[in-house]
Amino acid sequence: MKDQDITLVTAETLRNEILRHLKLSIGKDPSHASLYDWRMSLSLALRDRVVEPWFASTRKTYEGKHKRVYYLSMEFLIGRLIEDVTINLDVEEIAVQAMADLGQDYYKVVVDEPDAALGNGGLGRLAACFMDSLATLAIPAYGYGIRYEHGLFEQHFEGGQQTESAEGWLAQRHAWEFERPEVTYNIHFGGYVSEENGKSNWNPAETVLASAYDTPIVGWKGQWANTLRLWAAKPVKLFDLESFNRGDYIGANAPERLARTISRVLYPDDTTQDGKELRLKQEYFFTSASIKDLLRRFLAEGNKIEDLHEHVAIQLNDTHPAIAGPELVRLLIDKHDFNIDDAIEMARKCLGYTNHTLLPEALERWPEDLFARILPRHHRIIQMIQDRHLSATGSDIRIIEHGNVKMGELAFIIAHSVNGVSALHSELVKETVFADLHKAYPSRILNQTNGITPRRWLYSCNPALRNLITDTIGSGWAADLERLQNLNAHLDDTGFLQAYAAAKTTNKVRLAKWLKDRNDVTLDTSAMFDVQIKRIHEYKRQHLNILETIALWNEIRDNPTANWTPRVKIFGGKAAPGYVLAKSIIRLINDVAATINNDPVTKHLLQVVYPENYNVSMAEVLIPASDLSEQISTAGKEASGTGNMKLSLNGSPTIGTLDGANVEIRDHVGHENFFLFGLTAAEAQEKRTEHGYSRRAIEASPRLSRVLGQIGAGVFSNGDHHRYSDILHNLYEHDYFLVSCDFDEYFAKQREVDAVYLDVNRWTRMAAANTAGMGWFSADRTIRSYADQIWDAKSVT
Ligand code: Z16
Asked: Is 214 exposed, middle or buried (0-12, 13-18, 19+ CB in 10 A)?
């Protein structure tokens, strides 16, 4: 690929473009412009520079009749875009200069942008990383999702407890999108199915409009741009004038209210599904609009419907869009005269399904009566898909069972490919949730280990390390991350290690300043920054971490003059609003922080900080500053993890279990550069069959018994003995996640971490070896693998 002229821009031209937008798009004079006005003007000027490569990409795709990938996802957790676009267009210095010439601080403008937080966690962020890599690899692709009015809730702590408030990213104009009022589809719900001359007719009861908003996603060096198309729900009829004329002013607004509810808010549960009607409507709403849209594009190009699979690959990001299968079958039958068998076969050739979890509470199932009421025609089509599956395979696995429509089984059966997201997870998919279907379709399950975009998660968020890497191995690594291996030749070079440590210190100082400004806490930047950032969940075991923190505190107090390694324990993450035990864990962390941070005996050695409202932009500050990455989930429960990859890439060795992608990270960075502890997935499963295992483990551990005793005695709750009885009860009586069983080994491994950290050279070498070994985890590698093995899609050169 050769660089296009379009990215050639000077500070002067960019400055003039910003001024033009300030005047003509925002309607402001420079002397009266607010920070918001400057941000809008800069964003619009940058967006202009994406439009040419965007058009060029569309044109090439069309002219070359290239296959397109359609990535269907309920969530796209993209975060901020100014820095992302600037870096991808390679104009950061120019942008800084242009803003300075206008008397503005570019970085102040960057952090004024609200995060686009249209996702809960890993699954949504993965979709965003994939969009970045698809554009970088010049694979023609569309992301399809929902334009939620409110993204993930904002988290606050009140007396240490999580409260939530609505997020409002669209309260301000979203500078990056193009509204497409002409691109709309009618989406139907409810009603009944009638039969006429052997044809089924869906007579829906309700209709809403899906209206498109496009955001261009530009790849590395501006060589290619794809589209993220998000659907907003609007009323078919804006306003009920009849009601209004009757004097019914509330009733007049009813159609509007009903429709807009559908794209109003992102469901805040990551791994539980609550079977609510609105959620099902959201899923069908965006899936149906997306399928109709891709069919329209395909036919508009003069293609024959029989060739659909040659031009279209549809990937289902979890089961949330699994209704795409029956919807495509329905449209092929009703609009294109396919018979049911050919329609199913065609749908299968187009569809792939990615599984992201084994947790039973996360597997989507809909009460059959609800499902049949909202989607009566699809209900019947699913029965037909099931009948054909049963007779073709002799399997007895049903999609509809015990009055439930099971979306995992539907997705598995209607797709030609099913993949897990790490090697271990994919094996467990074969052995557990889909064991029987795997027997019926033995070549269907593949592994595609997750990846992360190195542009956002190293190049952009960690300029100190970025510059050192480029100085050491040359440029070009950001789009060819395996080149980081060239750092291995420098791991015994003292000058390199000193520079590496200096880059880490720069990032720790940046974080310390950020926390000072935000929360007025002071960090000792020579202490080890020990970081656990992710959704709060029992399986991720933040409670294991905080229990170990208490045990360490005890031991420092017992022996305050020993050679302790100073640590700052940093937590970040949100709990689902309805997840009571997770919220209890949050409160415990905050309570422990309040006690420990005020202890004059230990405060210079141990500190706990938990900044509220963890999100993508907070991750961009925390990750480069981390020394130690906590990846301590119960083995067999974390499908992959991607934060584990970001931290290791940024020179933060892992303390972790053999779970998800940790297994592969350890293999890539070297076993000697990874702090392993804990039961394996198989041992964990075995342990659960031993009666009374948790109480026995607690009684066998004086250290853990002491900690649990303190919590029960109210040491961290002003003498309240009951505040944490839920957690304590859970640990003593069930402990499904085996906190008690892994505790001692975790504590011991942490002391090993302490010892290595005191040896600065050894630690820095380990950190640098992590960076050097992580190239394989680029999402570019992941996307190439999907393109080869699942989509049969090619880069356009
Ligand atoms: C999610 O983020 C994930 C799984 C899931 O069922 C629902 C949501 Cl919202 C996560 C997995 O927990 C994580 O291990 C994985 O890395 C990530 O999906 C991307 O695959």
From this structure: middle
Residues in contact with ligand 1 (CB, 6 Å cut-off) = 120-123, 126, 270-271, 318, 356-357, 362, 421, 450, 638-642, 660
Q: Measured at the alpha carbon of residue 478, what is the angle toward residues 477 and 482, in degrees to the nearest 5? A: 50
Instruction: Give me ligand 1 centre to Cα 376, in Å.
Output: 30
Tokens of 425: 């997870």
Instruction: Determine which residue's CA is closest to atom 19 belonging to ligand 1.
Output: 123
* CA distance linking residue 584 with residue 162, whole number of Å: 9
Could you tell me the CA-to-CA distances from 589 to 85, 545, 595, 599, 611 in Å, in that order? Answer: 37, 9, 10, 16, 11
Catalytically annotated residue among 68, 389, 534, 637: 534
> Do 268 and 577 form a contact (C-beta atoms < 8 A)?
yes
The 10 Å Cβ neighbour count of residue 257 is 11
Q: Are 234 and 209 in contact (CB under 8 A)?
A: yes
Is residue 795 classed exposed, middle or buried when 0-12, 13-18 and 19+ CB atoms within 10 A define those classes? middle
- pLDDT at residue 2 in the model: 40
Separation CA 260–CA 249 (nearest Å): 18
Residue nearest to atom 9 of ligand 1 (CA): 270
Strands 116-118, 76-79: parallel, antiparallel or unpaired by DSSP?
Answer: antiparallel
Distance between CA atoms of 742 and 631, rounded to whole angstroms?
13
Q: Tokens 């992201």 belong to which residue?
A: 356
Report d(CA 458, CA 624) in Å as an integer: 8
721 in active site: no
Q: Are 191 and 202 in contact (CB under 8 A)?
A: yes
* DSSP 8-state code for residue 71: E
Closest to 678 measured CA to CA, from 667, 664, 662: 662
Instruction: Yes or no: say if 141 and 70 are a contact pair by the CB < 8 Å rule.
Output: yes
DSSP 540: G
Please, what are the domains in the chain? 1-64+81-114 (no CATH), 65-80+115-147+167-448 (3.40.50.2000), 455-679+746-781 (3.40.50.2000)
481, 466 Cβ separation under 8 angstroms: no
Q: Where are the beta strands (DSSP E) in 32-177?
A: 68-72, 76-79, 116-118, 141-146, 154-158, 161-165
pLDDT at residue 1 in the model: 37
CB atoms within 10 A of CB 408: 23
Bridge partners of residue 655, in order along the sequence: 630, 675
C-alpha 515 to ligand 1 mean position (Å) = 28
Ligand 1 midpoint to CA 534 (Å): 11
Q: State the CB neighbour count (10 A cutoff) for residue 360.
A: 9
Short-list 669, 682, 602, CA closest to 631: 669
Q: Which of 490, 488, 486 is nearest to 499 (CA)?
A: 490
Residue among 675, 662, 303, 621 at smallest CA distance from 457: 621
Q: Please, are residues 703 and 551 in contact by the beta-carbon 8 Å criterion?
A: yes
Looking at the CA of residue 660, tell me the nearest atom of ligand 1: 14
Atom of ligand 1 nearest to the CA of 359: 6
For a mutational test of ligand 1's pocket, the pick from 73, 129, 152, 270, i.e. the residue with the most ligand atoms closer than 8 A to its C-beta, is 270
Q: Name the amino acid, one letter, at 45.
A: A
Side-chain-side CA neighbours of 84 within 13 Å: the count stands at 28
Residue of 318, 319, 357 with the most ligand 1 atoms within 8 Å of its CB, for mutation:
357
Q: What is the pairing mode between strands 161-165 and 154-158? A: antiparallel
Phi/psi-derived region of residue 222, left when phi > 0, alpha when psi is between -120 and 50, beta in every other case: left
Asked if 619 contacts 579 with a C-beta cutoff of 8 angstroms, the reply is no
Q: For the chain, which residues score pLDDT lower than 50? A: 1-4
* The pLDDT value given to residue 435: 98
